[in-house]
Amino acid sequence: MAVEDTQPLISHLIELRSRLLRSMVCIITIFLALLYFSNDIYHMVSAPLMDQLPKGASMIATDVASPFLTPIKLTLIVSVFISAPYILYQVWSFIAPALYKHERRLMMPLLFSSTGLFYLGMAFAYFVVFPLAFGFFVKTAPEGILISTDINNYLNFVMALFFAFGVSFEVPVAIILLCWSGVTTPDDLKKKRPYIIVGAFVVGMLLTPPDVFSQTLLAIPMCILFEIGVFFARFYVGKGRKKQSDQDDDDDETRSDEGDEKPSA
After folding, report:
1. 60-84 b/e with 16+ CB inside 10 Å = b?
2. The pLDDT of residue 258 is above 50
3. pLDDT (0 to 100) of residue 215
4. Mean of the per-residue pLDDT values for the chain?
5. What are the backbone dihedrals phi and psi of residue 220, each rounded to the nearest 5 degrees, phi first?
6. Distance between CA 123 and CA 83 in Å, rounded?
7. Which are the contacts of 115, defined by CB distance < 8 A and separation ≥ 6?
8. Using CA atoms, how far apart are residues 219 and 242, in angstroms rounded to an integer?
9. Which of 185, 212, 243, 260 lies in disulfide reach of 102, CB 3.0 to 4.6 Å?
10. In angstroms, what is the C-alpha Rg of the chain?
11. What's the rounded mean pLDDT across residues 123-145?
12. Quick one: how far is CA 253 from the chain centroid?
């Protein structure tokens, strides 16, 4: 009996290892394909700051190996971001067999929407937040101060913002999952709106670098996305309850059929 119980666990572990290897191969393949363009990728990421710098100012490298290692580091991070849909597909393929049919129907849109929202958050940070934030920082610099940002420090700064905005744009998905699982309801979330708004600014303070400008630019979209998540959660809660009731009815019918068959035997 013990051997039979361990066989499913071993098969799941083998499948998990296989899907992890596939994800790693995808990341490495994309990284090798983009490695030649690593300097161009860094130039594109640094463009929002370079466009705001005054004449005569430029980015600097304080470490000897930074001009070589920093673009490669960025290329690896970009490879992970690009591989995100394939990695999520591997995760979905691993957990999907354990879900009911109605759960798979509800989770599939959330899987695609979560990926799209993460990319949307990164795009919002690049096209909206970076120009505004860097323009604000440059204009408020004390007179006589020449702005020369280290390339490695800049990369750490923008990656933190990319990740913060990507995660914060997942708020609608998180709300839908909480409401669908029965942890809370859209009506309860509406009643707690003032606390959630305060919480959005606290999260913005924790996820972004220590400046009020970035915190506010993160908190405001989170509040808007909260309202969007509450709106769509109503549809998912209704579908989830209906599908669950149908599943329960099917289970009851199955049990009744089994009960009817036993006396005849």
Report:
1. eeeeeebeeebbbbbbbbbbebbbb
2. no
3. 78
4. 80
5. -65, -50
6. 16
7. 84, 85, 88
8. 34
9. 243
10. 25
11. 83
12. 41
Q: How far apart are CA 74 and CA 159, in angstroms?
A: 9
> What are the structure tokens assigned to 70, written together?
């920093």
| Tokens of residue 229, six digits | 């998540």
Name the token pair of 210: 């220590």
Which residues are CB-neighbours of 55 under 8 A, at least 6 positions away? Answer: none
The single residue listed with the structure tokens 């609608």 is: 172
CA distances from 227 to 49, 126, 152 (A): 32, 23, 37
Separation in Å, CA 172 to CA 129, 130, 238: 20, 23, 16
Helices 151-168 and 101-124: angle between axes, nearest 10 degrees: 140
d(CA 202, CA 215): 8
pTM confidence score = 0.76
Partner residues linked to 150 by β-bridges: 60
- Say if residues 151 and 59 touch (Cβ distance below 8 Å): yes
Q: Are 92 and 181 in contact (CB under 8 A)?
A: no
Q: What percent of the chain stands above pLDDT 70?
A: 85
Residue 102 and residue 246 in contact, taking contact as beta carbons nearer than 8 Å: yes
- Are the C-beta atoms of 85 and 117 separated by less than 8 Å? no
